[in-house]
Amino acid sequence: MTGPTPPEQLVDGFGRVHRDLRISVTDRCNFRCTYCMPEEGMQWMAREEILTFEEITRIAQVFVERYGVDSIRLTGGEPTVRAHLPVLVAKLAALGVELAMTTNGSTLRSQAQALADAGLRRINVSLDSLRRDRFLELTRRDELDRVLDGIEAAKEAGLDPVKINVVLVGGVNDDEVVDFARFGRDNDVTVRFIEFMPLDADGGWEHAQVVPQAEIVRRIEGVFPMEPVVRGHEPAEQWRYLDRPAGRPGASAGDVVGVIPTVTRPFCESCDRVRLTAEGQLRNCLFALDEFDLRAPLREGGTDDDLAAVMQRAVGAKWAGHAIGNVQFIRPRKSMSQIGG
Ligand code: SAM
Ligand code: SF4
User: Fold this and answer.
1) Is residue 134 part of a domain?
2) Which domain holds residue 272?
3) pTM metric for this prediction
């Protein structure tokens, strides 16, 4: 996004400029995905611990106006279970950022239009199986049809592109790689496969369950020949189907497929993200062990300078990379739903 040069930038010790803010709006969810939450017994944050829309907007405003953050993604927990979400979307859209959301998609039939009208532009829907029985097993909810309908609703509401995020877990759903590729092609949505990360609810993650990027690409290519999309010097984590050349008439989001190799080929060196948890803690990495408190200064009458100082401290403390797979790697004690995936 172009605009006036911000007065300052959020630069870490490795020269990475931070422009992307992920905001978790709730830790709650209407699903119970096995790798993310136990079936029973989640301890939810108390209502007063969670930032209000005004508090979220104040923090976002400092990020945007002072530090030039130009992209904000709403997540959770499940963001759409937070009441009146379009009100927050409108407040954030007014900051002039590229606004996106990650959702399980189950409520989009009733919410997508209101969210789009409020200024949401892009959406990622998480979907790990196209088979009803497996979807039920993975999410503990029999809502595959609602999610598929939600994806249609998102398209109808003009959210563009609609991306489908598929976490592949070896031996669980990796036999659906080609089915998902076909789904993306047939439904004009960009499917992106995500390697399973050690942030699961029960600590049961094993390296052997990671389906590596190279394997995913090999399986798709066997059925739908494709070529890497080249961005800058590097081939990106996107492939284009050879029968869907760039610029073709009727081009669609389903002409490409993505693989996000967080584990086998981490993109830490170009990471420009910071995360705000639902209770107002700043995290400089998904796998960070420390958090930086923005809620206390916010609620104690702190100035924008006070908030900005916490942001600088958080980004300044960012490490080079998460080093999953190294013996030194320490798993955070939180799951994705508590961090804000
Ligand atoms: N509820 C929303 C959803 O499911 O899209 C947003 C929050 S969810 C925590 C964000 C994303 O994190 C989802 O795509 C989910 O599949 C992914 N996720 C959760 N735990 C994960 C893990 N251990 N490894 C990889 N992805 C994970
Ligand atoms: Fe809910 Fe998303 Fe976690 Fe599934 S992955 S339990 S939908 S927060």
Assistant:
1) yes
2) 20-339
3) 0.92
